Amino acid sequence: QVQLVESGGGLVQPGGSLRLSCAASGTGFSVYNLSWYRQAPGKQRELVASITGGGSTNYADSVKGRFTVSRDNAKKMLYLQMNSLNVDDTAVYYCNKGGAWGRGISVTVSS
Fold this sequence. Notes:
Layout: E1 4-7, E2 10-12, E3 18-24, E4 34-39, E5 46-51, E6 57-59, E7 67-72, E8 77-82, E9 91-97, E10 100-101, E11 105-109
Parallel strand pairs: 2-11
Antiparallel strand pairs: 1-3, 3-8, 4-5, 4-9, 5-6, 7-8, 9-10, 9-11
């Protein structure tokens, strides 16, 4: 069965950095479009970043220039490097592989 497990979240101060990881199970990892979403309380879940099987990336305007999405097909891992974090980045972050969802991981940016 398909499983996606996020890790690397936690509490960080404004201006700090954090790297999220998503470990995938199952077959065909290298061909899937992978994405990071986030959801803050009372808000819609939003697409943060995506990366295709060929390595092409896209970012939400709010994180462009600060976040970097990458993947390691050999390890079946998805990453999100988050720099220059601000309080608006506080949310539960979810990874997505071809429509399948992880359980999410909390990121809190606070002084």
